[in-house]
Amino acid sequence: MAAAGLVGGAQLRLGLAAAAAVAALDQAAKLWLLYGFGLTERDRVAVTPFLDLVLAWNPGISYGLFQQAGPLAQSVLLALKVIAVALLVVWLARTPSRLAGLALGFIIGGAIGNAFDRLVHGAVMDFVLFHITAATWTFQWYVFNLADAAIVAGVIGLVCESLFLQDAAKVP
Q: Which helix (H) or strand (E) holds 52?
């Protein structure tokens, strides 16, 4: 029993370190884009032929779903994020897997980064736009941020572990 606690402790530290790094990088990028780069004064900034920086404020949740305005709605969304993070930390504390620990840390850090935006700005700052332009059509993905990318990477890590590794990440 003690050995399992030590393994979970190591994964907890790994996951919390990953969460802190993701949240810090996300917030640093957003602060720099807002106040250093001046994205608020710019329209659309081409970085590569398929990636632009564009400022979008998302008052809803993932992919702009459940657009909510007003302090009560924003407080409810923030409370749901806090509950989700708490449950993910419980899962993280119980996982024996390094991959699951890292993946959960990415998800937790992304959720914290976006929750901080919601708390400070009343909406989540999104700024990355992938697009493909051909002769007759254009495809544009949703505008997202580093926190969103970390959440997706974390989910992919959990799915890969679940599908391909024998000791899949499961909540005990």
A: strand 51-58
DSSP-assigned beta bridge partners for residue 48: 51
Q: What is the pLDDT of residues 43-69, one digit of tens each?
A: 899 999 999 999 999 887 655 555 555
DSSP 3-state of 138: strand
What CA dihedral angle connects 100, 112, 81 and 63, to 10 degrees? Answer: -90
| Given 26, 52, 126, 167, the catalytic residue | 126
Between helix 98-121 and helix 146-164 the angle, nearest 10°, is 150
Strands (DSSP E) contained in 5-107 are: 44-48, 51-58
Active site residue 126: yes
Model-level pTM?
0.84
